[in-house]
Amino acid sequence: MRLTYTSDVWWKNAVVYCLDVETFKDGNGDGVGDFRGLTQQIDYLAGLGVTCLWLMPFFPTPNRDDGYDITDFYSIDPRLGTLGDFVEFMRTAHDRGMRVIADLVVNHTSDQHPWFKESRKSKNSPLRDWYVWSDKPEPDDPSKVVFPDKENSLWEWDNRSKQYYLHSFYKHQPDLNVANPEVRDEITRILGFWMELGLSGFRVDAVPFLIENVDPKLPDPHEFLQDMRAFMTRRKGGSILLGEVNVPYSELVRYFGDGLGDQVTMCFDFISMQKTWLSLARQEAAPLADALRERPKPPKDGQWAMFLRNHDELTLDKLTDEERQEVFDAFGPHKDMQIFGRGLRRRLPTMLGGDLRRVKMAYSLLFSLPGTPVIFYGEEIGMGENLEEEGRLAVRVPMQWSEDGGFSPADPVREMPEGAFAPDRVNVADQKRDTASLLRWFQLLIERYRECPELAWGTYTVLDAGHHAVFAHRCDADGATVVVAHNLCDTAVDAELELPGLEGQQLTDLLVDGTLDVSADARVKLPLEPHGCRWLRASPPEVAPEDASVMSQ
Ligand code: NOJ
């Protein structure tokens, strides 16, 4: 792989770190995180090895959906700072070699957005067609209601202008109508505005809803994604769209752009994420192995974004009812841990019972899976959730910097967890001093991930490891190979791998000291501790000095 090319296509082995400015660090002591606080912590993120920050929405908002309900796309929520603070933050992130992307939430606005206020004034409003209105909508399909705890329809009657409006999410989030060219132009302006201020791209919220739920239906909804992507490439080569597209693989490939990669640059791999949880619950490699074997190849410069947890519920919507129940039973048996009938409002370490060995194995798996890892702030220190908070806010607790919290000198915006996951037990300062901590483990994994571009760039093959609990795969690129194995169960096991092409080669352990030899018939025995993990680089056996001199004669 040419280095110039790999750095042009930087997203293919980036380390993406998602955070909410509001809950990361309070720089002015009012209890709310802000851009000044975030800027103070950039060196921490650079030290961790993060190469790209994904900022959750930071725009003015009534905050009824944690900022995913926007009232002005061209400004900063005053609680989080000013545009000046934003630019200073961008400058600092770039100085430390980090790119920044932000949420692009244009499927809908807040109902308090001036556009919607104007649109709902009357059927003759000049902005009427900026939203989706109907006299008599089709009857609701209840399975399409995204937040069934609060909504029972996708349509809301507007008494003033006597029509229904479409809201794919909460009723206070009316859907924008991208069938209207004026709306598409405005979205393009939003992209251009933030790119001019230095963003390298966007995490696009709710992509299928954005292009499908419009009126009249677009002849080719994907054309709009192509237009967005072409615009961005014109303005700034190397900018990306990271799509939230939670649909089956067979539909998903279309969002990359039919083989050309000219729509969304990266898509979250929701399918293998859900299958990973099923594999963890069963302590069996098969669900994840099958998913990765079935997964379509993205176009040349496209990539999968891999994650285990994000800022939302852990959605298990693509599992069968029985499979979902297995994951609930294993990792979130109580009703208040579950949400929307399809997910869990918990963070990973609590789900894994605080078992550090297992938590470390799960993240080793994440960083080794073929794709670009995306982590949610606080995962690197093993933060837990606070179930006292409402709904999905349970996992969006303030970042735990030190024993006393360290997020803010004032009362924080949201309560920190208590008990085993409280800041006095889980915090950055302590883990920096502890070489065996999860934070140090993340640093090692990130370093190795970046040093092994085969993982993200190579051709991957899921291996049969000779034991049902072992997930093993190899990644090959340009004649170099990395072999990885994870023991999903809590007893020690011996895996046995067949590695065609590596006959007689040596495997060097990249996480601990040690080597293994591949036999002449390409087999290797691999002992794995309970929840053990190994990353191994293959290399031809060293030539003995006397043989070397013979060869050089
Ligand atoms: C997806 C976001 O991830 C979620 O947090 C939000 O509530 C919905 N989109 C609506 O914007």
From TrEMBL:
Organism annotation: Nonomuraea coxensis DSM 45129
Enzyme class: hydrolase
Hydrolase recorded as keyword: yes
GO molecular function, one term: alpha-amylase activity
Family annotation (PANTHER family): ALPHA-AMYLASE FAMILY MEMBER (PTHR10357), MALTOSE ALPHA-D-GLUCOSYLTRANSFERASE (PTHR10357:SF219)
A Pfam short name: Alpha-amylase
Name this protein carries in UniProt: Trehalose synthase/amylase TreS
Coiled-coil region list: none
Protein keywords: Glycosidase, Hydrolase
Taxonomy, superkingdom: Bacteria
Presence of keyword Ubl conjugation: no
Lineage: Bacteria, Bacillati, Actinomycetota, Actinomycetes, Streptosporangiales
EC number: 3.2.1.1
